[in-house]
Specification:
Helix content is about 45%, strand content about 15%. By secondary structure, it is α/β, with parallel strands linked by helices. The structure holds 1,4-dihydronicotinamide adenine dinucleotide (NAI). The site of 1,4-dihydronicotinamide adenine dinucleotide has 30 residues, from helix 2 and helix 5.
Length: about 260
């Protein structure tokens, strides 16, 4: 890769905060941000699980700090950004990744279960994005917010009425913030992944049923790999995506264009 191209995708000199960095997509992309030169704030409720990710980033020559964060709690979000700023300066890039994903039937879902889904997967994304934007505007700095939505924010699936509703909200939030924050040089985009094996998918795709689903529903007939989210994330986070805002990048093996 030429130096100019590598520089475009570089996150050198940036502070990147990743929510839900203790596992899965968040832990993986936090390591990628470190490799791309960023100072990385690893934010999660399970702080003890951040230690390994932080060590990996530092072993590769990067800088990382684990902070406690519950996206459903305003005080916790503000405190995480305070710690980030004290250690590495204003957060330039946010990967809004924290989420939950339990399947529930629509006739059985309770008030508490519905609220819990919206509280984490939609309100949490809004809260973190707003907090990041307020601080960027105050510091008069440009920034990039990358929200992890889902193909289930664009289509629907059995057992996921609450999840699909929250993720559709993330997509509309992404577009609304892109519109209103552009004047502050803050870009807001989303990635809509298809299925990737993580703690959230809980081994389902190892089962015969899961394998049959992949064969039938995904044009590429396989799961996505964590590595396949690296390019989309770096594009949106770095100067390579400097004219992109309000975009929703599907990374789904073609599932969203599956034949009806
Ligand atoms: P995961 O379960 O490994 O990661 C989710 C992370 O969010 C965990 O570290 C969890 O502790 C954290 N989290 C949950 N509630 C939180 C809260 N209140 N405050 C702070 N952190 C919290 O699962 P995965 O797959 O890595 O999920 C990451 C994101 O990707 C989620 O938003 C999910 O909806 C989305 N996604 C995942 C897909 C998949 O197939 N794995 C497909 C499409 C979207």
């Amino acid at each position: 890769m030429s130096t100019e191209i590598a520089e475009q995708f570089s996150l050198a000199g940036r502070t990147v905060l990743v929510t839900g960095a203790s596992s899965g997509i968040g832990a993986h992309l936090a390591r990628v941000a470190g490799r791309a030169g960023a100072r990385v704030i690893l934010a999660a409720r399970r702080v003890e699980r951040l230690q390994q990710v932080a060590e990996d980033i530092e072993w590769e020559g990067g800088k990382a700090l684990g902070v406690s964060l519950d996206v459903t709690d305003r005080a916790s979000v503000e405190a995480a950004f305070d710690s980030a700023e004290a250690a590495f300066g204003v957060v330039d890039v946010v990967l809004n990744n924290a989420g939950i994903g339990n399947g529930l039937r629509p006739l059985e879902i309770t008030e508490e279960e519905w609220r819990a889904m919206l509280a984490t997967n939609l309100d949490g994304v809004w809260r973190v994005a707003q907090c990041a934007a307020q601080r960027l505007v105050k510091a008069e700095r440009p920034g990039s917010i990358v929200n992890i939505a889902s193909m289930l924010g664009l289509r629907v699936g059995n057992g996921y009425s609450h999840y699909c509703t929250a993720k559709a909200g993330v997509i509309q939030l992404t577009k609304s913030l892109a519109l209103e924050l552009a004047r502050y040089r803050i870009r807001v985009n989303a990635i809509a992944p298809g299925y990737v094996a993580t703690e959230m998918t809980d081994g389902y795709f190892d089962s015969e049923k899961g394998q049959a689903y992949l064969r039938n529903a995904v044009p590429m007939r396989r799961l996505g790999r964590l590595e396949e989210l690296e390019g989309p994330f770096l594009l949106l986070a770095s100067e390579a995506g400097s004219y992109m805002s309000g975009a929703v990048l599907a990374v789904d093996g073609g599932q969203l264009v599956g034949s009806l």
